[in-house]
Amino acid sequence: MLVYPKLTDFIPAAELDGLLARAATISGLSLCCQGLGGEIVARSPGSMAEPNGNGVDLLHGKERLGRLTSTGGDSRAVVSEVLQWVADEIQERFRTRREIECLAEHITENYHNLECIFDVIQPLSSLFSLNVVENCQTVLVATSSLVHAERSWLLIAFEDKPELVSLHKTEEGDVLLDSTVLDDSRTGPWEHTFRTGEAINAARSSDIPCGVQLREDLGVTLPLLCLRLEGDRRPLGVLCFSGKAHADFFTSTEVKLTAAITAHIGTLMSNAKLQEDMHSLLLEAITVLSGVMETKDEYTHGHVERVTNYAASIAAHLGFTPEHVERLRIAALLHDLGKIGIPDRVLLKHGDLTEDEKAIMQSHAIAGPRILKHFKHLEPIIPWIQGHHERPDGQGYPLGLKGDAIPIEAQILSVADAFDAMTSNRPYRVAMSIDAAVRRLHDGAGTQFNERVVSAFLETEIFQNLKNGS
Prior knowledge:
The chain is about 45% helix and about 15% strand. Strand 9 (about 225-230) and strand 10 (about 235-245) form a beta hairpin. Helix 6 packs antiparallel against helix 7 and helix 12 runs antiparallel to helix 13. The longest helix is centred in the first third of the chain and has 46 residues, at about 75-120. By secondary structure, the protein is an alpha+beta fold. The strands form two sheets. Strands 7-6-5-10-9-8 form a six-stranded antiparallel β-sheet, sandwiched between helices. A four-stranded antiparallel β-sheet has the order 2-1-4-3. It has three domains: about 5-115, GAF domain (Beta-Lactamase, 2-Layer Sandwich); about 125-270, GAF domain (Beta-Lactamase, 2-Layer Sandwich), CATH 3.30.450.40; about 295-465, Hypothetical protein af1432, CATH 1.10.3210.10. It has 15 helices and ten strands. It has helices at about 15-25, 75-120, 130-145, 190-195, 250-295, 305-315, 320-335, 345, 355-360, 365-370, 380-385, 410-420, 435-445, 450-460, 460-465; strands at about 30-35, 40-45, 55-60, 65-70, 150-155, 165-170, 175-180, 200, 225-230, 235-245.
């Protein structure tokens, strides 16, 4: 049932009294203003005007607001003119104020919509980096809650896979991970939207595009909303919502909000793919560079790879995020970069190094970072590389840092590097046994090595497999 606004919702009765008083003073008429139900809402002072007097309806478009009546006056034409003048003034005030309120409501609604969009996309800006599937699960839960959908699907296309990764949020709120192949023999909602880019917003069966099957066998019901995720003008996936508990359609506002979010997510996914490609290219270059370093010393063949794996395992065991672990992997690949500049007579020497030769060898901890400072993307990991020979007791090099002044990442590299060095053959000695290396780690815990890092390393799966010979 429609409820029309009252005249006094926008023009207070006191204001109407004042307007009628001024008009009565000028015209000599007695004026009375009635509401929609015939109730008197305003009178001119001393007015005896009644509802059955001369009058004119007060209108807003085709919507009736009330009636303005009068008594007195010698000329019917003058009475009519005064009534119309006062009515026009009342109607104009009503129209202006109602438009202002509608505009305020529109601004409030848009602000709410922007808040909704921000609440969904703001956490996503830093998500699309490594685990796209996990990040898309966040997207699915947030957007389905926004439009109050009972069930929702997010299908993601990967270039290296023939099938689409499928995330399905059930009516109970669970998110199920699966994969699906776009079936050429049948056209479901997501096949149609993914291939054509045409959005589906169906409240009735007749709203579904010709030839598209609802796929009730998969739990898809009406109302249905499907939108394509796009990036760089290519399809990246499909976002589908199905069923609503308290409505049988998706509102235009919900469709607009979802479309805006979908466009933003598509851009994020596209940018993440570009970032991933650049990251892969960087890793390839770094791997080649680390390989070049190892060609100088046959005894260290595989050292960088092993240190990288040890360091990544320790970091994961300590609870580092996947992105943090990945940055540490890059640091591990580059931790001995400075040895490129070490003369072979020092690097490959059989026997003990002189004090001068030790100083030359230790200079690699400064030389590597000096090379890397020209790469802005690698700036955050430079202190980790520079500090991987520092010690908690302050007896390390190159800066003699102590305790917590040494980045935890550098202390992880220190343990990983030392363990592999001890268990590998070198020009000046044969490899230690794993048990002997472990004793050295325990002996150095708290002085040469970080105790927590040592404990974490000995608990990692990679160490346990090494210890058990698997």
